[in-house]
Amino acid sequence: MDIEHFQYLVDVAQTKSITLSAKRLFISQQGLSQIMVRLENDLNVPLLNRHRQGVTLTEAGEVAVTKIEEILEKYNELLEALKPYSQVNADNLSGELTISSVPFISSNFLPEVLELYNKQYPGVEVRIDEKQPAEIIEEINNCAIDIGLFILPDFEFNEQILACNGTYEKILENEMYAVVASKSPLAKKKILTRAELYKQPIAIYNFDAYLRIIRQMFQDIKRLNILVKTNSVDLYRNAIINRQAVGITSPTDTRLLNDDSLITIPIKEPVKMYYGCFIPASCTMSKAAEAFIGVLKSQVANLVNRKK
């Protein structure tokens, strides 16, 4: 059993929805469902009643959540108590931290990571630069930055890993989803095929890394009925809500998916996305970089705490 899985169960208890919790936790619905089943198997009791309207706790589930909340409270107390003994101590951490990030990360969850990091480690000056993957790899290879933040689609993963003379650490894995308005006729669909998406008006973003994914998903991209091609989240959202377009994005698209009038639908045979960071292999990782990666993992993996 994993402490993060306990946090996931608490979130599901709050939302009464695997779909909504998966969105909040930045993981796939299938992945969260599997985690819930694993917890039930580990504890040898049914925790959830599953029905079309969502999920509710069983009697055993209610007992489990009550006890888990006590465990999480003690766990947080433990972390606080151990802070003075940590090798990465906020009181003596200073210097400069240089980070290059692909635009999608820097425009979504990175601002909140930086806000927390700056609060915990005010003595560190963080410099952020948005760049494309090839530029970041070159910087990593030349030991010109401390951390490179990446999103690697499955069809480019091995190529990018081999091109970079750095240590890669995976932070998150998810898939590309379809996004529709909650009032759309498609909203009741449990999954969409690419053939079905060819028949729908589509909203897409207009940056290179994203477009490579779209081209990989739809070999005949000219057949797509692209209604909107933009980097404006407002225009993208408007096309989905008011013009019945279907968006294609990942669960980490927080600027878009924080809107409750939108829902995500799995795509059959989706492109998988790997979120992670590269650290230069030829340089010693600084304490500031080590601390940042810890905060990044915490923010991405423990969004339950962030929502409280």
From TrEMBL:
Domain HTH lysR-type stretches: 1-58
GO (cellular component) term, any one: cytosol
Record-level Gene Ontology MF annotations: DNA binding; DNA-binding transcription factor activity
Signal peptide: none
Keyword set, alphabetical order: DNA-binding, Transcription, Transcription regulation
Highest taxon of the lineage: Bacteria
Any Pfam family the entry gives: LysR_substrate
InterPro entries: HTH-type_LysR_regulators, LysR_HTH_N, LysR_subst-bd, WH-like_DNA-bd_sf, WH_DNA-bd_sf
UniProt xrefs under SUPFAM superfamilies: Periplasmic binding protein-like II (SSF53850), Winged helix' DNA-binding domain (SSF46785)
Family: Belongs to the LysR transcriptional regulatory family.
Protein name per Swiss-Prot or TrEMBL: HTH lysR-type domain-containing protein
